[in-house]
Specification:
Transcription Termination Factor Rho, Rna-binding Domain, Chain A, Domain 1, mainly alpha
């Protein structure tokens, strides 16, 4: 019973497309989900072919189906791949004495990057 919490379990993709076309029509479906197979010469067959190959489009269609039937919506995870924005308080302040000591490392004897390569 790995699918017990999945509201789409047992529902074919073809059934979902037919339901959405009956409810919204091809034109409104193309406006709600910007996919070419819903806008240019739409058919159930071409939509099935595209949606089986393209996961992001299938996710949008399934989400609209769940939303229109008032079924439990899945947690949207499209933000999981994006790194979290840093708050100004999380950015480390540069210590003034550290930046001064770094700038004087190459001015004592005129050798550049002596602190890295060693004194010659």
């Amino acid at each position: 019973m790995t699918q017990q919490n999945n509201p789409l379990h047992g529902i074919k993709l073809e059934t979902i497309i037919i339901y959405l076309v009956d409810k919204y029509g091809w034109e409104e479906l193309g406006n709600r989900i910007n996919i070419r197979c819903f806008k240019d010469n739409p058919s159930v067959k071409s939509s099935l072919t595209f949606l089986r190959k393209t996961q992001w489009a299938r996710d949008k269609v399934e989400y609209l189906y769940l939303k229109s039937n008032k079924l439990p919506l899945p947690v949207r995870n499209d933000f999981a791949a994006k790194p979290a924005a840093r708050k100004p308080s999380q950015i480390k302040n540069i210590n003034k004495t550290q930046s001064i000591s770094n700038s004087t490392k190459n001015t004592v004897d005129g050798s550049v990057n002596a602190h890295i390569w060693g004194k010659s």
